[in-house]
Amino acid sequence: MKVLGVDPGIHGGLALVEINDGTAPQLLEAIDIPTVGVKAKERVDVLALRAWILVHQPQHAFIERAQAMPRQGSSSGFKYGRATGAIEAVIACCEIAITIVEPAVWKKAHHLRGGDKEGARQRALQLFPAAHALLARKKDHGRGEAALIALTIGGAL
User: Fold this and answer.
1) Where are the domains of the chain?
2) Quick count: other Cβ atoms within 10 Å of Cβ 46?
3) Taking a C-beta distance cutoff of 8 angstroms, is the pair 29, 13 a contact?
4) If you classify domain 2-153 with CATH, what class do you get?
């Protein structure tokens, strides 16, 4: 089964994980959330996101629940919420079932703490060594988180 994991937000990530009984899960693809515009006008490129989803045809999507962060400004919070809503809407319009996942659930399964972005990327590299190129940069933490969200909730752990 192809599972889509989503670390939402403008600078989040998408990961497509193949989960089959009796075999190790495979990270098939991972990308940054596609965007258009710059700085204050940056937003999710919903058409590019839709095209990517239609090419990969996941059977289910697991999206981390969006929440306001402490000390986050109102403009940043609004931008984050708008991006998350756009991502959820595109996935729903592609007729893919969505499950919203609490951050604490997937992080606990991987023994991660709070906002440890680099720890999530490192954990994904451990679990998917063949997909090193997809997670090679430190800024690929959104992809790593998305892969862990798909893996944990997808039932592979």
Assistant:
1) 2-153
2) 15
3) no
4) alpha beta
Distance CA 147, CA 19 (A): 11
> Following CA atoms 76, 81, 83, 86 in sequence, which dihedral angle do they give, to the nearest 10 degrees?
-160
pLDDT digits (tens, 9 = 90+) for 99-136: 999 999 999 999 998 778 899 999 999 999 999 999 99
Element (H, E) at 29: strand 26-32
Return the sign of the alpha-carbon dihedral for residues 136, 140, 141, 143: negative
Dihedral angle over CA of 148, 152, 153, 157, nearest 10 = 150
Dist. CA 33–CA 56, nearest whole Å = 15
- Tens of pLDDT along 59-98? 999 999 988 777 778 888 888 999 999 999 999 999 999 9
Burial of 26 (0-12, 13-18, 19+ CB in 10 A): middle
- The residues with which 97 forms a beta bridge, in sequence order, are 60
Nearest to 32 by CA among 145, 157, 148, 109: 145
